[in-house]
Amino acid sequence: MASVGLVATFTLQGVFKHALTEGDRIVLLAVSEHYDQGLYAIGSSYGGMAARLLLQPLEENARLLWSHESEHEGQSSSRLEDSYVLLVKLVVYLGLLFASLAVHYTDVLLTILGQNREASPVVAVFCTYTAFLAWNGMTEAFVYGVTSSKRQVGEVGLAHTIVGICFAVVAPVAVSRHGTVGLVGANSICMVLRGLYAVSFAARYRFPGISMLDLIRQMMPPLLVLVMGFGLSFFVTRQSLRYFEHELVQLDSIGIRNPAWCKIALRHVAVGLACAVGTASLVVTNDGLFLKKLQETFSSRRLKRD
Fold it and tell me: In the prediction, which pLDDT does 300 show?
């Protein structure tokens, strides 16, 4: 009977999580016009590409890894902690890459793809949203991988219910004031809340010797990388975007068939590549231990498969 109850709890939680996933569409249908719904669809399709292609496979594999390691926690408690911090930090780096660099290249992307350039702000906000989504997705993957009791499952469901209520209150207001951008912002707030709960869950149930703040500190890149790498890259590429937009006003047509547009766009992209290389150099010099552990982890997994 205990197993049946646990399965029922998981089922209810899955249904509620699906409702949370579809919540943005429900809000759009209720309070926005068809034009805003179309912009959101474009933003979701292209802005969510990173989540579908990069983050989701990582999260699924991480969940399976942690589920396996949690079964042998007596022998590998430290391994569980190391892999948790390592993989969450990896997706944080990926999310920051999109939030600091890709956010300023949505206009170029949509122009190349022949899409409506008015959706550029929505796609840009989705790039920022990717950072929150990455952190929340991986921390929740850990929760789902190690949760074993009905009490824990019920607690997770309660936490998600509270976040869902917050979204139901905030989202309509955000959409009415800021349109589709406001909806993405409301989703970002929910991702932060769910991520904070997931880290709190890990600290309380799996790593009782480590505080929640210590876990968050370990997941974050070094301060120098955050400020001089991602922060400076955001500022520089933003200035490059402003210059790019100023140059566009002087063009007769915008698109890849216009050599003048291609020249301006390539110059803008070159700035982003230079910032990416500079940030990567800072990561190598200031977070080398993380890169070493990451390489060792993937090398050991590859050897086990072979």
Answer: 66
**Contact present, 45 and 110 (Cβ < 8 Å):** no
pTM, entire model: 0.86
* Distance set, CA 294 to CA 54, 264, 298, 299 (Å): 16, 37, 6, 9
User: DSSP H helical segments within 48-72, as ranges?
Assistant: 49-50, 56-71
User: Token pair of 240, please?
Assistant: 């490059």
CB 63 within 8 A of CB 144: yes
DSSP class of 221: P
92 within 8 A of 220, measured Cβ to Cβ = yes
Instruction: Give the model confidence (pLDDT) of 93-147 as tens digits.
Output: 999 999 999 999 999 988 888 887 888 888 888 889 989 999 999 999 999 888 8
SS3 86: helix
Alpha-carbon distance 93 to 211, whole Å? 22
Residue 75 pLDDT: 45
Residue 189 neighbours by CB distance under 10 Å: 16
Return the structure tokens found at 280. 């990567």
Section 281-296 average pLDDT: 91
The DSSP symbol for 220 reads S
Distance of CA 302 to the CA centre of its chain: 26
Q: Which long-range contacts (CB under 8 A, 24 or more apart) does 155-159 make?
A: 155/201, 156/13, 156/201, 157/9, 157/12, 157/13, 157/16, 159/194, 159/197
Nearest to 137 by CA among 208, 214, 42, 57: 57
Say which residues have a Cβ less than 8 Å from residue 46's Cβ, sequence separation at least 6: 106, 109, 110, 113, 115, 123, 126
Q: Tokens 């207001």 correspond to what residue? A: 173
- Return the residue matching tokens 């007596």: 74
Place of tokens 């906000």: 125
Q: Could you read off the pLDDT of 81-107 as tens digits, one per residue?
A: 888 999 999 999 999 999 999 999 999
CA distance 182 to 125: 9
Overall average pLDDT of the 150-161 stretch: 85
Rounded to whole angstroms, the Cα distance separating 104 from 134 reads 19
